[in-house]
Amino acid sequence: MQYWLFKTEPNDYSYDDLVRDKKTVWDGVGNNTALMHLRNVKKGDNVFIYHTGKDKHIAGVATVTRGTYPDPELDDEKRVVVDVKAVKALSTPVTLTQVKADPTFAKFSLVTISRLSAMPVTPAWWKKLCKMGGIAAP
Questions:
Q1: Which of 3, 56, 73, 87 maximizes the CB count within 10 A of its CB?
Q2: Distance between CA atoms of 17 and 71, rounded to whole angstroms?
Q3: For 21, left (φ over 0), alpha (ψ -120 to 50), or beta?
């Protein structure tokens, strides 16, 4: 199993929307580096859902129910999507400010490549972020 962080603008689609919908197709990733990461996502991987914009925090955890496949809405073989379902909201959202303040995360793409919308999370970072968010690591 691998761990990931996917970014979303909460005004467009929030973690609460995912909870309401129970599952969704995670689409809209266009950056080449983010797409490279997305192509490595597999069924069963866990994902942090991160709110961008004014929120700037990790809101919850999702799991991948279907690995990478071509975006059915686009006629572009480079664009891929995955299916995710909600698992659990963080008891306490973990803010970007908290992540940046902790030297443990100095090499985390959330800190170093702020515009990247899909990125890997190491198992150690996953555990620590879950703890900071007040949940047991799924």
A1: 3
A2: 20
A3: alpha
Cα of first residue to Cα of last residue in the chain, in angstroms, is: 11
- Give pLDDT tens digits for 102-129: 999 999 999 999 889 999 999 999 999 9
Q: How many CA atoms lie within 13 A of 39 on its CB side?
A: 11
Q: What ranges do the domains of the chain cover?
A: 3-132
The CA-based diameter of the chain, rounded to the nearest angstrom, is 42
Q: Take residue 82 and report the two structure tokens written for it.
A: 């995955």
Cα 62 from Cα 23, distance rounded (Å): 9
Structural domain 3-132, CATH architecture: Roll (3.10)
- 91 confidence band (pLDDT: 50, 70, 90): very high
